[in-house]
Amino acid sequence: GAGVSQSPSNKVTEKGKDVELRCDPISGHTALYWYRQSLGQGLEFLIYFQGNSAPDKSGLPSDRFSAERTGGSVSTLTIQRTQQEDSAVYLCASSPWGGAYEQFFGPGTRLTVL
Amino acid sequence: KQEVTQIPAALSVPEGENLVLNCSFTDSAIYNLQWFRQDPGKGLTSLLLIQSSQREQTSGRLNASLDKSSGRSTLYIAASQPGDSATYLCAVTGNQGGKLIFGQGTELSVKP
């Protein structure tokens, strides 16, 4: 079966522009997670969805970051007014349910802000 | 606040050696622990998941152990191969599950 997919694989943008990153989880997985991987910070949690609701948004670094999930499936992470420090690889993961289940990761979107 | 540490940061071994990667965490109230590998420029591949009630899990040449009370896990790789070269990450979830807290990883190089 298909794994987690993310698009685009690479995104180069100018400082101040908005970007949207997309994640398609494994079919039937109700839990979806966004993480960010940067050289200085390692892998950091951003936000967790269970179905369409987000019970844990504690990792979003500022109000420029937002995410939504529709139909319990696809999720979009939006970064407004991008800054150079937003440059990182954004990873999405899904699991059958939150909690005890294994998380499966997508290939990531590499974001470069010039 | 949960913190996860992996030692060593980098490791180079000749092909065929058995090796151990270490992971420690500061808060023993975890729900589970997961080991991943990451190849350069790629996403994370799940290797093993250990629930907090378990002591170890095995998959092929990999064996992961968990000592929750002491806040430690080890990943044992038997008969290492050049294809095992990658960065290995451990991560824990808190006792409510959900988000993973990651270590900084161990970069493994297996020389032919």
Core attributes:
heterodimer, A: 114 residues, mainly beta, 11 strands, 0% helix, globular, B: mainly beta, six-stranded mixed β-sheet
Question: Gist?
Answer:
The complex is a heterodimer of chains A (114) and B (112). In chain A, 0% of the residues lie in helices and 52% in strands. Chain A has 114 residues and is mainly β.
Description:
The complex is a heterodimer of chains A (114) and B (112). Chain A is an all-beta fold and 114 residues long. Chain A is 0% helix and 52% strand. Chain A starts with a strand and ends with a strand. The model of chain A has no long low-confidence stretch (mean pLDDT 93). By secondary structure, chain B is an all-beta fold. Classes of the chains: A mainly beta (114), B mainly beta (112).
What is the terminal-to-terminal distance of chain B? Answer: 41 Å
Largest interface: A-B, 25 and 24 residues
Give the overall silhouette of chain A: globular
Structural class of chain B: mainly beta
Shape field of chain B: globular
Q: How much is the average pLDDT of chain B?
A: 94
Write the SSE topology.
The complex is a heterodimer of chains A (114) and B (112).
Chain A lengths: L4 E3 L2 E4 L5 E6 L6 E8 L3 E9 L2 E4 L8 E5 L5 E5 L8 E8 L8 E2 L3 E5 L1
Parallel strand pairs in A: 2-11
Antiparallel strand pairs in A: 1-3, 3-8, 4-5, 4-9, 5-6, 7-8, 9-10, 9-11
Chain B lengths: L3 E4 L2 E5 L4 E7 L4 E9 L5 E8 L4 E4 L2 E6 L4 E6 L8 E9 L5 E3 L3 E6 L1
Parallel strand pairs in B: 2-11
Antiparallel strand pairs in B: 1-3, 3-8, 4-5, 4-9, 6-7, 7-8, 9-10, 9-11
